[in-house]
Amino acid sequence: MTSANDGDYPVDEVAQAWLIKMRGEESGALREEFDAWLIASADHGEAYRRAERRMAALAVLKTSERHGTDHAEARRGRARGWLPWGAAATAIALLMIAIGAGGAPLPGQPGSASVARAAEPLVTQRGEIRSFRLADGSSATLDTDSRLELAFGDGARSVRLTKGRVRLSIARQNIPLHIEAGRGTTIANDAEIDLRLDEAGTVSAVLRRGDADLRPDAKTGPATALTRGKTLSYRRDGRSQLEVAQAPDIPANWPEGWAEYRSIRLDRLVAEANRYAVIPIVIDDAAIAALDVSGRFHLSETEAFAERIASLFGLSVERSADVT
Fold first, then answer.
1. Rounded mean pLDDT of 155-179?
2. Is the pLDDT reported for residue 219 higher than 90?
3. Can you give the chain as a three-state secondary structure string?
4. 91 and 167 assigned to the same domain
5. Which end of the chain is more exposed for a tag (fewer CB within 10 A), N or C?
């Protein structure tokens, strides 16, 4: 049953979106709305149970003869030092990934836009990429698991990134937009900027269009002009020296869920893909993790990403529902 529901979205896609949202940090606030959706139709409950069964289905990418299986236990032991929150204990082969509804996009992913009110923060759950229209005519595209706070009115025009990544297409107004992250502020008018705040507390800014100035500490220190094609990074506390990379390290087409790399370690690539995965990919082979990868990858589509990696490295994909 995949009849249309909640606007133009099929009921299975809406159920999958709810499954992700109710496993996120905002689940408590969404509980009443979710319960109302669940009891509104018997189809909703059936679709939600199907989504749960799909989440339980794991795809296991196994090593091939090309990479060898000798001393797999020894390699597994060395890899556990960097695996996140004990995920190594659940890994039974090279990679494990959760498969969603055939890689179908979730409601709120690229192509949709909501109108943001000044009083409410903009938030995306894991797996979402969502665009918003702001009150000043600007637009904001939030990456997966991100949060942007707004402050418009009374002569104020500012936003604060507290988590994740955002692309801001800034409309021209009488006053510039102040974009805060950590202790730093970027100031721009009629411009397009990518801003990222990672888990390590590093803020990175890339200018896509127009002009902008960045202060790593808004209270002290000089401003630095952003330059197209370069990345400016600083620590969230604003105390470390501003670092300038000669090439942008934020992929230009991330709002579509894609990323292109000339050279990246497989474990770093998988870490990027894990930002979108409901159940994270686990690499349980240190030699495989260190392999160099290049190419264009659809990171937000977990199944397609797994198939691409399997093709690149001669791996096979097996599905199992009893991995613990």
1. 94
2. no
3. CCCEECCCEEHHHHHHHHHHHCCCCCHHHHHHHHHHHHHCCHHHHHHHHHHHHHHHCEEEEECCCCCCCCCHHHHHHHHCCCCHHHHHHHCCCCEEEECCCCCCCCCCCCCCEEECCCCCCEECCCCCCEEEECCCCCEEEECCCCEEEEEEECCEEEEEEEEEEEEEEECCCCCCEEEEECCEEEEECCEEEEEEECCCCEEEEEEEECCEEEECCCCCCCCEECCCCCEEEEECCCCCCCEEECCCCCCCCHHHCEEEEEEEEHHHHHHHHHCCCCCCCCCCCHHHHCCEEEEEEECCCHHHHHHHHHHHHCCEEEEECCCC
4. no
5. C
